Amino acid sequence: MFNTLCSSCHGQSGAGDGPGAASLNPKPRNYTDKAWQASVTDDDIRRIILEGGLAVGKSQMMPPSPQLKDKPLVVDELVKIVRSFGQ
């Protein structure tokens, strides 16, 4: 799911350097940033995934994924993947 929804902008390594990132302003979040990782909770990440950046006062370029609302286990796995980039 990460490869399908996220990696085109956030990159395979989570560094915000996917092929779609070049045309975006602001640039996608770099998940390897330890300061950012420490500043957000898992619930924050879940909300961003489901509701998009605009819902949390961030860029509207981060689209919501409402199709995952009824798939909490998928969202939990995405959160784990995002967290894994900060280790």
In short:
With 87 residues, this protein is an all-alpha fold.
- Give unreliable regions as ranges: none
Which structural category fits the helices and strands? mainly alpha
Q: Fraction of residues in helices?
A: 40-55%
Number of strands: 0
What would you report as the Rg, rounded to the nearest angstrom? 12 Å
Multimeric status of the protein: single chain
Shape: globular
SSE arrangement, N to C = HHHHH
Amount of beta strand: under 5%
Q: How many DSSP H or I helices?
A: 5
The end-to-end span amounts to 20 Å
Mean pLDDT metric: 97
Largest sheet: none
Question: Which SSEs are present, and which pair or pack?
Answer:
Layout: H1 2-5, H2 7-10, H3 34-39, H4 42-51, H5 72-84
Helix pairs in contact: 4-5
Overview of this structure, please?
With 87 residues, the protein is an all-alpha fold. It has a domain at 30-87. It has helices spanning 2-5, 7-10, 34-39, 42-51, 72-84. Helix 4 packs across helix 5. It is globular and about 30 Å long.
Features:
87 residues; 5 helices; 0% strand; globular; single chain
